[in-house]
């Protein structure tokens, strides 16, 4: 009889912990969803977090391996952010593809890694890295200038390859320089100028 009662109590405690975890996860998701339209404020917050992390690493004079790993992870995320969803080199598809000739129909650029997921992954990476700086087991002694030089070379080679890919398939992963619809006002003013 005692075993049954003890099991029920243990099950109730586990259920209450699971319910609490589920409630917290829903609350977190609710607030995360509320930040979606506020891209500028989200990136400002991430920049502040990155600055705090950089100041901590500078002040401690350590955790260069953690910072190097963070840099490699951010570089990997950046590649996904700048790459199209469907790469014409790797997988020909029936869906939307990048135009390769001037006569091709315009198809919008769809990222492999959307901006919100890119921001969320970077912010989470900075938070985890910041927490890691409080544990001395992650402070592996290394000669940091070599890591920095290696990361810069890796960044330059990766971005060169990405830019060559952009030029080859004629796409720009940003809205800078793209034509935007400005409404009836500009078309009315242009038709009015033709009539004069």
Automatic annotation (TrEMBL):
Annotated InterPro entries: Rer1
Pfam name, any one: Rer1
Intracellular or extracellular location(s): Membrane
UniProt keyword terms in alphabetical order: Membrane, Transmembrane, Transmembrane helix
Membrane topology value: Multi-pass membrane protein
Domain of life (superkingdom): Eukaryota
Main location: membrane
Keyword Membrane: yes
A single GO cellular-component term on record: cytoplasm
Function according to Swiss-Prot or TrEMBL: Involved in the retrieval of endoplasmic reticulum membrane proteins from the early Golgi compartment.
Family, similarity comment: Belongs to the RER1 family.
Protein name per the record: Protein RER1
Organism from which the protein derives: Ilex paraguariensis (yerba mate)
């Amino acid at each position: 009889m005692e075993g049954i009662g003890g099991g029920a109590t243990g099950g109730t405690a586990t259920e209450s912990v699971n319910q609490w975890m589920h409630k917290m996860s829903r609350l977190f998701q609710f607030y995360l969803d509320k930040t979606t339209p506020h891209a500028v404020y989200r990136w400002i917050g991430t920049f502040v977090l990155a600055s705090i992390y950089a100041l901590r690493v500078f002040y401690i004079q350590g955790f260069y391996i953690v910072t190097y790993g963070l840099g490699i992870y951010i570089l990997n995320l950046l590649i996904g952010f700048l790459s199209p969803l469907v790469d014409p080199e790797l997988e020909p598809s029936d869906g939307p593809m990048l135009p390769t000739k001037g006569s091709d129909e315009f198809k919008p650029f769809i990222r492999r890694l959307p901006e919100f997921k890119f921001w969320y992954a970077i912010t989470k990476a900075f938070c985890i890295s910041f927490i890691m700086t409080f544990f001395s087991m992650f402070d592996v002694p290394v000669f940091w200038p070599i890591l920095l030089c290696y990361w810069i070379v890796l960044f330059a080679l990766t971005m060169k390859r990405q830019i060559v890919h952009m030029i080859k398939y004629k796409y720009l992963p940003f809205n800078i320089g793209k034509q935007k619809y400005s409404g009836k006002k500009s078309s009315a003013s242009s038709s009015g100028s033709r009539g004069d």
